[in-house]
Amino acid sequence: MILYAGGYLAFYTPDQNPEMACVLADQVPLRDLLSEIGIPAAEVQLVILNGAIVDLEQTYVQNQDVVKIFPGVDGG
Amino acid sequence: MPMKTDFKVLRVDLTTGNIQTELLSEDFYKRYPGGKALAGYYLLREMPANTEPFDPENVLILAAGLLTGAPVSTTPRYVVAGRSPLTYAVGSSEAAGYWGPELKQAGYEAVIITGRAENPVYLWINDQEVEIRSAENLWGRTTAEAQAMIREALGDEKVRVLQTGIAGENLVRFAGLTNDLRHFNGRNGLGAVFGAKNLKAVAVRGTRRYQEIAHDPDGLRELGRKLARQVRDNPQSWELQHRGTPGLIEPLNVSGMLPTRNFRQGAFEQMEDIKWEAYEKELLIARRTCFACAVRCKREVQIDGKPSEYGGPEYETLASFSSNCGISDLHVIAKANELCNAYMLDSISTGVTISFAMECFENGLIGLDDTDGIELRFGNADAMLAMIEKIAKRDGFGDILAEGSKRAAEKIGNGAIDYAQQVKGQEVPMHEPRGKYNVGMGYAVAEIGADHLIVAHDTMFTNPDSLPFRNAAPLGITQAEPARSLSDEKVRQYLILENWNSFENTVGYCFFGPAPRGFIHPDDVLASINLASGWNMTFDDLLEIGERAVNLHRLFNVREGFTSKDDDLPKRFYEPLENGFLEGESIDHDLFLAARAHLYQIKGWDPETGIPTRPRLEHLGLGWAADLLNL
Question: Cβ of B482 under 8 Å from any chain A Cβ?
Answer without folding.
Answer: no
